[in-house]
Amino acid sequence: MTIDLPFIWIAFKEIIKALPITLILTIVPLLVGFLIGIIVALVRIYKTRFVYQAANGYVSFFRGTPIIMHIMVIYYGIPLLVDQVASKFNLNIQSSKIPIILFVLTALSLAAGAYLSEIIRSGIISVSTGQLESAYSVGMTKIQAMFRIVLPQALAQSVPNFTNIFIGFLHTSSIAFLVSEKELTGAANIVASTNLKFLEAFIAAGIIYWGLTIIVEGISFLLEKRVTSYSRGGVS
Amino acid sequence: MGKAFDPLLIIEFLPTLLHYLGVTLEILAASIFLGLILGVAAAIPRLFKIPFLNQLVILYVSFIRGTPILIQLFLVFYGLPAILMIFNIDISKLEAIYFVIITYAISNGASFSEIFRGAIRAVDKGQTEAAYSVGMTSTQNFFRIVLPQALRIAFPNMANSFIGSLKDTSLAFSIGVMDMVGRGDTLISATAHALEVYITLSIIYYAVVLLFEKIFNKLEKHFNRYQSADLSVAA
Q: Which of B65, B83, B180, B198 would you mutate first to test chain A, the one with the most A CBs within 10 A?
């Protein structure tokens, strides 16, 4: 077995067509997860009664189990649930009509929510209490202080963490291929098995992921420079 | 086939799958151990800025950080036999578990090297200066002063990597390893109760992760016992 170098390029061109699905599987869960993350982080910081324990349990469980488990449990669980509900209420919904990508997006969003809530929480905690006190002293309400003073600073400080999680979820989206989603890895697998050139196809996929990661890191570097331009300590 | 979802099956599956937890932990232990060696070896050229090797390690770390573990797994699984074939070594009959261990060791090595490098650089320069001022050699300084402190700093990150790696082992089944998830796969084909299998697996993973988190927290407290209260929070 020798490596067919020209085929890597052919595979590359074929696999990169699946890029939009990978990007959807990365960005949508992170956006939904961001909303979940902010809510969960605030619940955990203000120790809202009753919801607080649930929020803790949610974060702990989703961070403590592999993401493939979330995908699989939702992939097999939701159709069962939908069919049960449909047969009980005589609804005309068939679980087999639900596109698989929705299950994957749901699972990834829930996982992203748990990871992002921890990042947002640590960002909020790292903003000094003096900021909050001065916000109150100029007459801001609790909500104004949180959304105008604390959160913007917390999010700016969390840019490196957001980059890490973005890259993490870009890579995690490759798991979706195990439920036959045709994203980058899934496309690579198809190219590999139809041409029986596994190594070349996965080299091409690896190059695509690597390139994407480098681009994301570059964007993050510029973003970090921008968002911290007012808060850099020392001499500038 | 009985009910669509049978919670009792979870209890029934639990012992069967737990039986294969050993394989999962074996993969984890072997890949962490090899990863530690690789991590130290990769951190040295970075710390001492050894030309060429330094760039090579940067490339290695960047590649591992830049690609999903699943892709790395496939690259090793299909690539390693092809590379070794050039040297006339035939490993195509090697069991899949070894490919998994090699992949995870390479992956852990990259993250460990970055953790070590960061930790060693995080030790205050004054410590080295103080060591020299009492007449220590540079080797003595490294092993007696810098390394012990660096390990303390590195520990929380290493614990995170460890737990991340444990969760990553759940992908080993994709190249046909008979670990917990692989056994779960065969249970699904036998019983067609996928949901129960994955719930059982989640419970096991969660329990193991919680256990390790507890142990690591205890250890971290132990390592920080000489730190004054406010310092250990900062570190």
A: B198
Give me the interface pTM, i.e. the ipTM. Answer: 0.87
Architecture in CATH of A7-227: Orthogonal Bundle (1.10)
Is A172 an 8 Å CB contact of chain B?
A: yes
Count up the domains in chain B and report the number: 1
The DSSP string of A32-85 is HHHHHHHHHHHHHHHT-TTHHHHHHHHHHHHHHS-HHHHHHHHHHHHHHHHHHH
User: pLDDT in tens for each of the 235 residues of chain B?
Assistant: 456 788 888 898 999 999 999 999 999 999 999 999 999 999 999 988 999 999 999 999 999 999 999 999 999 999 998 888 888 888 878 889 999 999 999 999 999 999 999 999 999 889 999 999 999 998 999 899 998 899 899 999 999 999 999 999 999 999 989 999 999 999 998 988 999 999 999 999 999 999 999 999 999 998 888 876 554 444 4
For residue B4, the one-letter residue type is: A
What range does the domain containing B44 cover? Answer: 22-181
The reported pTM is: 0.89
